[in-house]
Amino acid sequence: MHTIAGTRGAVHDSGELTHMSLVHFAGCDGTDPDSLTRFEIDGRRQVMLAIEALRRYTPGCAGARLRHFGMTTGIRDTRKIHAAYKLTETDVRGEARFADSVGIYPEFIDGYGVLVLPTAGRYMRVPYRGMLPKRVRKLLVTPCAIGADRIAHAAARNMACRAVAGQGAGVAAAVSVRSGRELDRVDVEAVHAEPDRQGVRHR
Questions:
Q1: What residue ranges do the domains of the chain occupy?
Q2: What is the DSSP string of 129-166?
Q3: Which of 3, 87, 108, 109 could disulfide-pair with 148, CB 3.0 to 4.6 Å?
């Protein structure tokens, strides 16, 4: 176990926490069933140790009890595409602006020992090119496998960014079909027209 620090919910009078995301470990191969199995087993063992540590050492948690585990090990990082554009740490820390933006995302980085919480007014744009694989045609890939370095992925993997990129990918796919143009030749202004119509901010 690397750490039991993380997020937790409120403590009820019964001594129950609404949720905990406390056990983190590295080295699991999310593409290998045997690796996933080993980490599922060890993860549950470590959860029990974390619960005991909370009871002993964390004020207010003496009566904490485990109701259930997460259904599966949550894989934060595995294979990513070689994209037409690779999102960088500089992009996500520097409020990057892209002409082919499909949406905006608040500054929020969570992973690899880095935590940057959203600050009022700071945001980055999500580039369409980051979802386009270099060598595979007729395919768009949204954030969990978007072209990104480690810290940029720690931003793009978050659910709000997934929603932004997912909507952008869906709009782009529809524009591609409607116009008869390949995904890497889609008119970005036509992609922008739909969120404009919906009143959705994308730049």
A1: 1-75, 89-198
A2: GGGSBSS-SS----GGGSSB-HHHHHHHTSHHHHHHHH
A3: 87
